[in-house]
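user: can you give me the structure for this one chain? tokens are fine.
assistant: on it. calling the predictor now.
[tool input]
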Amino acid sequence: MPSTFRQQAESNQTTRKQNKQRSPVAGVAWYSANQWEQLCEVAADPEQLEKTYQKWLVVAEQVCQKMEASGIAIVKVPVEVQKLIDWCRERNVPVDGKARAQYVVELMRSGALSNANEASENR
């Protein structure tokens, strides 16, 4: 089974600063079925991705459950693949597991995620 998703989650976990009074937080790239299809078409490492959206979803949920059980707070970060592609082009990097993980970290650090959540809550 491809291990990129697990590696990405672990990478994101280690990039978080741990506050003694807070649980560590890990951002996890989260895709809709349509976005997953697009990712599979453009990924530089398609062999590292699960073959179907449903298989990815099962693995993703299992990884999130294990991380949460170990005391890590999970943030599911919705990824729009075109924005990921643009981000990778700006940095001249392939759309691979390392880039996807870094993209999620940057989204979380930039506050873009909280702004998107606030907008959806105000609807």
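assistant: here you go. Strands lie at 25-30, 73-78. The chain is about 60% helix and 10% strand.
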